[in-house]
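As agreed, record passed on underneath.
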Amino acid sequence: MEKYMIIDGERVPFTDEKNILAVIRKAGIILPTFCYYSDLSIYGACRMCVVEDNRGGIVASCSTPPKNGMEIRTNTPQLYYHRKRILELLLAAHCRDCTTCEKNGKCKLQELANRFAIPSVRFENTNPIRPIDTSSKAIVRNPNKCILCGDCVRVCSEIQHVGAIDFAHRGSDMEISTAFGRDIADTNCVNCGQCAAVCPTGAITIKNDTHDVWQAIHSEDKRVVVQIAPAVRVAIGEAYGYEPGENTIGKLIASLRMLGVDAIFDTSVGADLTIMEESEELVESLEEEGRKFPLFTSCCPGWIRFVETKYPYLMPYVSTSKSPMQMFGAVIKEYYKKQDKKEHKETVSVAIMPCTAKKYEASREEFKKDGIPYVDYVLTSEEVIGMLKEIGIRFDRLEPEAFDMPFSIYSGAGVIFGATGGVTEAAIRRVVADKSPKALKEIEFIGVRGMEGLKECTLDLDGRKVRIGIVSGLGNADRLIQKIESGEEHFDFVEVMACAGGCVAGAGQPFARSTEKRMRAEGLYKNDKALQIKRSEENPLVDTLYSDLLKNREHELLHVHYLQKNQVSQ
């Protein structure tokens, strides 16, 4: 027998919806929420989603399971009164500098204040002004804009298993804080930025580096060279009405040229180099007798930071290969070295990334030579969108353009790095003996693709069964490591991405739900199909680099050994 609820007099069937809120949304009614996020545990603190039952009782729809025959109303005088007063109180305790806020136009509090037509705030803000924490390379914390929804706390603890922030104090003194009120840079924060991605206001935002990049662009004695990560091409167009997953890289290139950038390359070239180096490490690790732990990938700086702070004894088992961004950054700086000297210019290397942790990675001492970083600035997709809007570029009207030479040749293996499982699939393409189109097609179906947080597959490599784990979301990585340590599971190779879904779901991308993230990943695989070169070793540019610029310098430019001090603090 069909189960149903009566919502505002209408009969609405339901099946496995976990709360009343989901059934209400099914009925086409969008209740306001602050603290509800479907991928996180239910908190039920803001009370904006309250509904009234047939007895006049008020319940939070997000934390109340549906019952067959239940009657509720979503729009009554009592509910209207409560919601407006909640909003008023939140606004009274809020720093209302909306016009200069990073979240202006994207703020949930601002949106609901407009929706409910709050004409004024009658209450005085009695909260003390708290200092803004700018210590992190990736995020900025402004507690004066916090509404205590707890989304940041839950994503940090439940999804990432980091727990760098939590609720502190009680009553009116309650705030989101680090342990002992320390700067976020002095905690175990991994710089993944997922807290900023879920924050509904401007309490946690991504550190903005556009001002410095603008200065470099406008400087006549600087050559601004940009590399673009694979995941950016399938997300940045969303800001201009394109569907998630649509490849808009040609329009982005055209836009960047209009900004005044001197050269534009694809980080997929760096990904091809990463596969060449990391696959060699994989083969060597398989030959080690009695190896306790698998070879872990090293592409994700959030994951590296997680290992350093929580599992420092695993660092020897992490690949020494640099991330694609850093490999390519080293190549770019070396390539322009002679030209810079001749033309009396300085090459400024800018990376456009879906990831906020890349900002931290770029600042690490391990990725500098003589104190000069290989990548000078990292911009997120959102920062680039802001720059394009700043000068009024009509992204949708631009004719697509191509990458610059000489770094414009890349493989499909490099492109799929942006999706969880992409690094593994690229490595498998490299190490398997059978290079036929049929074998390439079969790799897709061994379990490497999909948006699941934990995937497992087995590869037959020269008669040996190689166990592979693919993880996205640091909470899943935590669980997998514990299984390996206990002997419950054995793996030879493990790919880890800090953000659930991989780079397509990075905190620097336009905000997206699970469906949109999946569409982005599909867009990368579609791009891969359209490319003639499928494997990193087939890329002629890679051969050229190894025989020329990288000759006898592979270890210096393409590998890294992390300093011990970074395993304690940033």
